[in-house]
Design brief:
Order of helices and strands: H
Number of helices: 1
Shape: rod-shaped
Distance between the termini: 50 Å
Oligomer: single chain
Structural class: mainly alpha
Length: 40
């Protein structure tokens, strides 16, 4: 468990901002798709 924590800390720690950006982009994309569905 501790090794896993160290691994995710080293791998995800620096790239966490990247996942945040990807998450925001996905949410925006979903909102756009939903709005397009409603406009039809």
């Amino acid at each position: 468990m501790n090794n896993m924590m160290n691994y995710t800390d080293g791998w995800m720690g620096g790239g966490m901002w990247l996942w945040s950006v990807i998450g925001v982009l996905l949410i925006v994309l979903l909102v756009v798709v939903i709005l397009k569905q409603f406009k039809k």
